[in-house]
Amino acid sequence: MNEELRALHERLARLEELLTAAQEEPAEPAWRRPTRGETRWAVTAAVLVAVTLQLLLPERLAFQPEWLLPGLELLLLIVLFPASRPRMERTTSLLRGGGLTLAAVVSLANGWSAVLLIRGLVRGTEGGDAGTLLTTAVAIWLTNVIVFSLWYWEWDRGGPVARAAGSSDHPDFLFPQMQSGESAQTDWEPAFADYLYVSFTNATAFSPTDTMPLSRWAKLLMTVQASISLLTLALVVARSVNVFRG
Q1: In degrees rounded to 5, what are phi and psi of residue 88?
Q2: Distance CA 143, CA 111 (A)
Q3: Separation between Cα atoms, residue 57 and residue 209, nearest integer Å
Q4: Could you tell me if 31 and 188 are in contact, meaning their C-beta atoms sit under 8 angstroms apart?
Q5: Rg (Cα) of the chain, in Å, rounded?
Q6: Residues 172 and 154 sit within 8 Å (Cβ to Cβ)
Q7: Please, what is the Cα angle at 180 between 176 and 183, to 5 degrees?
Q8: Is there a smaller number of Cβ atoms within 10 Å at the N or the C end of the chain?
Q9: Low-confidence ranges of the chain (pLDDT < 70)
Q10: DSSP secondary structure letters along the chain
């Protein structure tokens, strides 16, 4: 009888140890497990800012007719926003294609303006007024930041819906919170604001800062963004200095 009680106590003690170990084991971080999807508010606000900046550009630098691409962007927003409410947890090929098309249209509109501005600076037909030149360049530069943040957000680990489903363990961007579990909350996961920050720092530092690109497409895209930003700023600053000296 005593041996049976002793064996029972040992089994109970072992079970208690296992339960304690399970409770002390750190929870899997949110970015690696299924979670609730993002809302589309932040993305919508960013695109509206981009549309506003595009409409404020001089007509000669806009894709003609100047209302076409901004109008298409607003139309896509009107379609995508209600379809993604309340959160982006389910998707279809149509919604996925719509999101990528929106990023592509914003890219086309801003790329067109950037090319015309750079061509005008090289030929000397742009930049007669330093104030107007700086304002135009800042608008294009800020829109470029939004453009690439959309691409990063849409492609990292398959996009926002795939990230919410936790379907990929291999991120394209390695955020600091992913590397240090002690300094990050267990419910942290990348949202659009994080990709906007990555885009902004890459456009200002011309290189990754705290977030590292891991996949080849992420490295290539960041290289393209840094190159565009560097070329635009270098030409604008040089032209502005010449205008002020003249």
Answers
A1: -85, 85
A2: 10
A3: 30
A4: yes
A5: 25
A6: no
A7: 95
A8: N
A9: 1-13, 15-27, 127, 181-184, 241-246
A10: -HHHHHHHHHHHHHHHHHHHHHHHSPPPPGGGS--PPPPSHHHHHHHHHHHHHHHHS-GGGSPSSTTHHHHHHHHHHHHHHHHT-S------HHHHHHHHHHHHHHHHHHHHHHHHHHHHHHHT-S-SSHHHHHHHHHHHHHHHHHHHHHHHHHHGGG-HHHHHHT--SS-SEE-HHHH-TTTS-TT----HHHHHHHHHHHHHHSS--SSEE-SHHHHHHHHHHHHHHHHHHHHHHHHHHHHHH-
- The pLDDT value recorded for residue 1 is 55
**Rounded to whole angstroms, how far apart are CA atoms 184 and 172?**
19
Please spell the DSSP secondary structure of 49-93, one letter per residue: HHHHHHHHS-GGGSPSSTTHHHHHHHHHHHHHHHHT-S------H
Q: Is 39 exposed, middle or buried (0-12, 13-18, 19+ CB in 10 A)?
A: middle
Model confidence over 62-121: pLDDT tens digits? 999 999 999 999 999 998 888 777 788 787 788 889 999 999 999 999 999 999 998 888
Residue with token string 């996961």:
189
For residue 210, the one-letter residue type is D
Cα–Cα distance list, 59 to 50, 63, 158 (Å): 16, 8, 37
How far, CA to CA in Å, does 240 sit from each of 34, 75, 80, 170, 212? Answer: 51, 37, 40, 44, 34
**CA nearest 208: which of 240, 166, 174?**
174
Q: What is the pLDDT of residue 22?
A: 46
Q: Can you tell me the distance from the alpha carbon of 25 to that of 197, in angstroms, rounded to the nearest whole number?
A: 32
